[in-house]
Design goal:
- The chain starts with a helix and ends with a helix.
- By secondary structure, it is mainly α.
- Helix 2 packs across helix 5.
């Protein structure tokens, strides 16, 4: 099964390293506006709308994975 990073990179047509960086920044507690404005080099210059969609999809995929584990 694909990792969440690989799924998001494929869905958003972005580099896996940039997606991983965004996930790490979100997990560290950084806000979307901060990431969009000050971490362009780490995100491949993703805009705030794309970052929000990616964050929402990340949350959905994590919840789905947790639900799968509960059912098992």
């Amino acid at each position: 099964m694909k990792s969440i990073v690989a799924i998001l990179a494929e869905e958003f047509n972005k580099n896996e390293q940039h997606v991983k960086n965004v996930i790490d920044l979100i997990d560290e507690g950084n806000t979307i506006p901060f990431i969009a404005r000050y971490r362009k080099e780490m995100t491949g210059a993703m805009d705030d709308q794309l970052l929000r969609r990616l964050a929402d999809r990340l949350s959905y995929l994590r919840n789905l994975a947790a639900r799968r584990e509960e059912i098992k």
